Structures are given as structure tokens and as C-alpha cells.
Amino acid sequence: MCLSVGAVTSWLLDSFEGVAGFDGASLSRYADAFVALGVDGATLSELDGNGLKDAGVDNAVHRSKLLRAWNQHTSDIERTSTLVRNARVVSWQGFSMEEALQHNSMQARSALIRTPEHVLASLQRGNTRFWMGMAQRPEANAFQRRALIMQQYPSVCVVGCSDSRVPVEIVFDLGLGDMFVIRVAGNVVGGPVTASVEYAVNHLHVKMVLVMGHEGCGAVKAAMLPEAQIHAESDNLRDFLLDVKAGMDQERLAHVSDPRARDREAVITNVVSQLRALKAISSVAEKVRSGDVILSGAFYDLSSGIVDFVNQVKPDEC
Ligand SMILES: [Zn+2]
Fold first, then answer.
1. Model-wide pTM > 0.85
2. Which range has the top average pLDDT, 112-116, 224-228, 248-252?
3. Homologous superfamily of domain range 116-317
């Protein structure tokens, strides 16, 4: 089984975190070189320094780092490959409900031991795959879908905007069962949204709650219009926009002269206002204080596809 570009990229990002001289250009060069070689788990373990040099890894420090990192990761990757192989064999030969049940409880256990920091890192990696055009688009096979019937075990709850250009699972390159997503215009918390977040935290035991605003948000732009104009809208829309407006610091926004910067600032102000509403939920605040849940905001840039994680709430702020 050859590694996909996405898998190689993800592994490189993981292995090279914080290594001097490793940047976007080397990532792209190494990933291309590995995929062009058709390198898989077996042949990569046979590659020595010279082989890596031939594969385009021209930095000697990076070559030795790659060999060391590969040794560390081999057992993990072998284990994952065995699981994937087993899942494929099972789906090919048919599977029993008992086997689906076992798979589900194994996945649920592994979700439970994931740390909030690990969940945040995997979101960052998924988004990098997306904006670099290396998305893996994980799709569960029949066996995995059947296993998911028993229970879901998403690691993150996202409050995102309904905007058609911000499909959350695609932006983070995640698949079925991975995220508990609530989408509403302007990613506004309140009513059923608040109840859904409480459900995700208290019953699904998610490790992270993310409020994600985005560039060019129509709901936020409309909320910045003069009140008289907002009052001309239908009752529901008017009340909704006035609610969003109430959470904004109009005076501060008026001082930002660049329209693009003002747009971003308004969206982030709205995200902060929604984070404040989430901090007011006692069960959420308790888990943020104990470090069991990361509560953070994010800004999705439509043009680049990059998600910036902003305004992470510190445990002592709850
Ligand atoms: Zn929006």
C-alpha cells in the first residue's frame, strides 16, 4: 500500500514539528519526492541516508531526523495498517454485528484517551491538508459505518456559520463521526445551539469546543448596519441581527479604517462574544477549568482556506 500525499504530508508535519529549517517549501518538496518514489511503509524503512538524498531530502540534518522519526513511527503505522487491512478484509468477507460492535467500542476507547491538545493538533493538521490541496477526504467503509450506528464519539464540537462556503468537515479534512457540528447563521450561541453544546460536552465528552467565524460573514455584516435598516427586516431576522449587534464593540470597530481588517475584526468580536456565552454555561466552564476541554475561537479565511485559531480561553478565565 503506497502512502498518499496527504498521509505523507501529515506524517512529515508531525515528525518535523519545531525542527529548524523545515518550512512549507521543504514540506512540499519532501512530500512530492516520497510520493513520486511510491514509498510505502516497507521500502521507507529500507531507505538509508543516500536513498533519502536521492529522494530530494537535501538537508543532512533533515535526513537523520527523518530516519529517526520513521523508526519511532513504524510501529504506530504498522498497527494502523493492520487495523485498516482488517477492516477491509472484514468488509470484503462480510461482518457480523459482534465484530462491528467490537470495532465501535475500540474506536470509542481510543477517542476517550485522546487529549484536548491532541484534538487541536489534529484539527490543525487536517486544515493544513485542506488548504495545501492534499486532503484525504476520509470516507468510512460499510463496516465502519455499521460500527458507527452503535454510538458516536466525536472529539470536537464546532459552532460554525451556515454559510455555504464554510463546510466544517471539508475545511478540517475529517469524516463521518469525527465532529459534532452545529451550524447557524453568524455562528451564534443561544437556545438549541447552547443545548447542543451542553449535550456534546456532557454526554459525548468532546475534548474541544470551537466557535468558528469566517471572512465575509453576511450575518455579521448585516448586524453592523444602522439599526433603522435592521428594523426594516422581518421580526425573526431583526431580533437575530440586533442580538448579534449587541455583542459587538461598535465604537472600537469604527476606528478600523481598512474594510478587510474591519470585517475580520467584526467577525472575531462576534466569536469572542459567543465564547463569552459559552463560558457562562457552568458545565462547560468547569471542564475548561479542569483542562478536560479546550474552548477556542477560530477565523476561517475564505480565500486561502486557512483556519486561524484565535482567542483560546484560558482555564483561569472561566
Ligand atoms: Zn457567516
1. no
2. 224-228
3. Carbonic anhydrase (3.40.1050.10)
